């Protein structure tokens, strides 16, 4: 048996990731997992998942947005969007109204409770992102967002 093989097999610091370290997708997955776990820690007591935060944020930034348009921009399939919106309505965070220009469609609005809820969530997310990204300058953060956005747009 080769000397040092057992040490390398049990010591995580000694394990080489030569190929994985060259793959962008590997780093994106690891980073995404880190952010998702941090998101859950930050907002778990609010009953807020990433998908719900995305919906509330989109409604906040686009009051009266059509339910279908919100789902489309967020990449949420129609049946899933219906159940997610129902959940937010049941929790008193949003209101769903029949659209004035299309009686078959719904417009979404934050309630007062929903507006307060999203602001609390956003404050916590920013605090946690500041912690996770503490080694990046403001310019580096903007560059990171720009690069990730380019990758996302190229893929879809």
UniProtKB/TrEMBL annotation:
Listed Pfam families: MarR_2
SMART domains associated with the record: HTH_MARR
Organism, scientific name: Sphingomonas kyungheensis
Transmembrane segments: none
Ranges for domain HTH marR-type: 21-153
Protein name: MarR family transcriptional regulator
Record carries keyword Transcription regulation: yes
Domain of life according to the entry: Bacteria
Keyword hit for Transcription regulation: yes
InterPro entries referenced in this protein's UniProt entry, alphabetically: HTH_MarR-typ (IPR000835), MarR/SlyA-like (IPR039422), Tscrpt_reg_MarR-type_CS (IPR023187), WH-like_DNA-bd_sf (IPR036388), WH_DNA-bd_sf (IPR036390)
Matching Gene3D superfamilies: Winged helix-like DNA-binding domain superfamily/Winged helix DNA-binding domain
Keywords: DNA-binding, Transcription, Transcription regulation
């Amino acid at each position: 048996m080769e000397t040092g093989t057992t040490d390398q097999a049990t010591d995580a610091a000694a394990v080489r990731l030569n190929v994985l370290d060259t793959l962008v997708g590997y780093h994106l997955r690891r980073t995404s997992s880190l952010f998702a776990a941090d998101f859950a820690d930050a907002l778990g007591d609010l009953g807020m998942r990433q998908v719900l935060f995305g919906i509330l944020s989109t409604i906040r930034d686009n009051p009266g947005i059509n339910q279908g348009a919100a789902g489309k921009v967020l990449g949420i399939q129609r049946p899933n969007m219906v159940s997610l919106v129902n959940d937010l309505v049941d929790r008193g965070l949003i209101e769903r109204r029949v659209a004035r220009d299309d009686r078959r469609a719904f417009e979404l609005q934050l309630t007062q409770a929903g507006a307060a809820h999203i602001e609390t969530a956003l404050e916590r997310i920013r605090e946690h992102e500041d912690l996770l990204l503490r080694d990046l300058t403001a310019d580096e953060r903007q560059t990171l967002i720009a690069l990730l956005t380019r990758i996302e747009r190229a893929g879809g």
